[in-house]
Amino acid sequence: xxxxxxxxxxxxxxxxxxxxxxxxxxxxxxxxxxxxxxxxxxxxxxxxxxxxxxxxxxxxxxxxxxxxxxxxxxxxxxxxxxxxxxxxxxxxxxxxxxxxxxxxxxxxxxxxxxxxxxxxxxxxxxxxxxxxxxxxxxxxxxxxxxxxxxxxxxxxxxxxxxxxxxxxxxxxxxxxxxxxxxxxxxxxxxxxxxxxxxxxxxxxxxxxxxxxxxxxxxxxxxxxxxxxxxxxxxxxxxxxxxxxxxxxxxxxxxxxxxxxxxxxxxxxxxxxxxxxxxxxxxxxxxxxxxxxxxxxxxxxxxxxxxxxxx
Length: 310
Description:
Blueprint: H1 8-25, H2 35-45, H3 55-70, H4 80-89, H5 95-106, H6 113-116, H7 133-145, H8 160-173, H9 180-183, H10 187-201, H11 211-227, H12 236-245, H13 260-277, H14 280-283, H15 290-309
Helix pairs in contact: 1-11, 1-15, 3-4, 3-7, 8-11
């Protein structure tokens, strides 16, 4: 079998976009009116060491806020936050113990089953609640961000968009990848897959932000554009401009039965179609967001490469 050859040209495009993200998402930079960046800063403030709360109270508060801002729906199981907090606190009496555990999982020195395979809370009928892989991965992500020197890789967020975009990026880079069914609902397999991808992407390049942080930012944003969902990528004024550029201001479907979820999905599909149809400069006309400009141009190039590969 012929060995695969890395698509170095596309890797360079990815690295260039990561460089823009590294500058725009850095915590030393001005966050500006970007909703998602503001949310990141809010969550990060909860991990500050100057809190007067007891350790377990801090952990519960963090989990609740992360769950709310990311809509991971852990609240659907009763007492899930308390049980997760108790499990995290059982690792040791301070954040340092949990951070060491999570980083060992991220660097594949330790299995994640202690926390990630557990079912938390109960349902109304007293059956056990669900596993909280996504929420716990986000908790680990923010905890390890507090010391980027000690934990330079960070922790990969387990996210549906990352799961969708992971095989796409591997194909564009022309590298082998795991099937989604093999890494879904398995934190160790997921971390291993993302870690192998990380090694290829960051082969000789260094950035200020943690590597898993940037890789997550890339996969999540590419996923948002691929879904036609820009609302968390820009502020309101820029979102208004973008939708106007696409000619979709006041767009409605012709269906008489108004189902909000279905309407949103149809609108997003229309956004994707328009983005595929228009040149990048028309999509982002009048929008000064540096990261969005770079992201849309890169997404367009990726779509073109996908067409050529077929």
